Amino acid sequence: MNRFKVPMQTKSKDKFVDAQSEPLLTIPKMKEEHEELDNLNETFSKRLDKENKISSLLEEMKKNIEDKDKINEIEKKIFWTTLGFD
After folding, report:
1. pLDDT higher than threshold 60 for residue 7
2. Are the CB atoms for 37 and 45 separated by under 8 Å?
3. What is the b/e burial string over 4-43, where b = at least 16 CB atoms within 10 angstroms of the residue's CB?
4. Rounded-to-integer distance, Cα 7 and Cα 17, Å
5. Which of 6, 8, 11, 79 has the greatest number of CB atoms lying within 10 Å of its CB?
6. 71 neighbors 64 (Cβ within 8 angstroms)
7. pTM
8. Predicted confidence (pLDDT) per residue in 22-53, tens digit
9. Rg of the chain (C-alpha set)
């Protein structure tokens, strides 16, 4: 649930105001609003960290698969070479 109040244009003659022209909009945010913003930031940071970990794990797995394929090719060459098939 979003508790933030955003000025909305209801009629064509209404105009939006910014904090510089409207002194009431510069009132500091309430403690609950700060806590909600902190919570949103923390949640986003956790999701971002999780996504970064998943991406790095996928890259590592891809590299391991490529390394295993190279090792298998080398082992096949060694096997066939030892049997006398070049």
Report:
1. no
2. no
3. eeeeeeeeeeeeeeeeeeeeeeeeeeeeeeeebeeeeeee
4. 8
5. 79
6. no
7. 0.42
8. 555 555 668 888 888 889 999 998 989 988 89
9. 30
